[in-house]
């Protein structure tokens, strides 16, 4: 897995490339923690366009990053989720929580 930091006009973005699994999940979490601590972004986005695999350790890391961002007052959003990664996040019930920008209102009827 490779992580690239990108500053978008509306958010600090972590671009994740490769597989997010037991051997890489802690690295992503620590990178996100350092980014939140050192940059204090208002919004933290994780771009999953190049993420090819995610296991339960990866899901746990994403949930921890979401919690850490929220605790520090940052808005969190996982975007560009597709394929097998999207399916595993949907099956485990975290897709909506991670991909809905934390400043967005939930859809009506929920």
From TrEMBL:
Gene3D superfamilies linked to this entry: STAS domain
InterPro entries reported in the protein's UniProt record: Anti-sigma_ant, STAS_dom, STAS_dom_sf
Stretches assigned to the STAS domain: 1-110
Gene Ontology molecular function: any one: anti-sigma factor antagonist activity
Domain of life according to the entry: Bacteria
Coiled-coil regions listed: none
Record family assignment: Belongs to the anti-sigma-factor antagonist family.
Name listed for the protein in its UniProt record: Anti-sigma factor antagonist
Organism: Catenuloplanes atrovinosus
Upper lineage: Bacteria, Bacillati, Actinomycetota, Actinomycetes, Micromonosporales
